[in-house]
DNA sequence: TAGCTATATAGCCATATGGATATATTGTGG
DNA sequence: CCACAATATATCCATATGGCTATATAGCTA
């Protein structure tokens, strides 16, 4: 799972790739469509797509001449699950845990 | 905000750094304490800490001889906020949005 | 089959990253 | 002030990353 997170976070660290995911949130798209908003070469986009796919964030389809991409939510869910463990540090709705933690931390910290 | 996400995701892409955050979730810790679980040199850990700090994920304190680190939840909250936009793709509790989206996507996809 | 369209792959290059060792810096205690 | 402890900074090195151009591959369509 750690390896997965490595790949996922690493894929998400690039703004072009996040923008691509944003586009795919509206539905599947061809490589050309995904490339359109950017001033990057087509191979550069293909490379980004490969990174996203290897991280499990998207999938490739096949449709006539083109290979449309779709979002693969599971990978994002993995991230959400990871970050959920930290939610208590900022979210009011985790008050009881928060109280508990501030006691524990207060003990350790002072 | 995009720049922030770049730095944050990039920082989170390394398992050592995620482990450090995990340790800091139990309360503040010195560099030596943070380095202890790893078979890495002290400078390597300092480098990781610098990356985490520049991403805003941790802060440095000062206490006698040592510079203890603490978690900085805001940066993680930023990630949670980003990913929340995708929550509808996997979470049942977002059913209405999900329905809406599947209609929209169905339209675009078929 | 020939040619066009869509996309992938191969190289190549510059910069970034993660690690190591050696050394500098800063604070504490004697 | 000295010596030690804790941590940071400076190099250096190997590998990874992101971009480009050129070229290969696959599927239509005439």
Automatic annotation (TrEMBL), chains A, B:
SMART domains of this UniProt entry? HTH_ARSR
Q: Which UniProt keywords apply?
A: DNA-binding
Q: Which domain of life is it from?
A: Bacteria
GO MF term list? DNA binding
Q: Where is the HTH arsR-type domain?
A: 1-91
TM annotation in the entry: none
Specify one Pfam family: HTH_20
* SUPFAM superfamilies for this protein: Winged helix' DNA-binding domain
InterPro entries with a match to the protein in the record: ArsR-like_HTH, HTH_ArsR_DNA-bd_dom, WH-like_DNA-bd_sf, WH_DNA-bd_sf
From the Swiss-Prot or TrEMBL record, give the protein name.
DNA-binding transcriptional ArsR family regulator
What organism is listed for this UniProt entry?
A: Rhizobium laguerreae
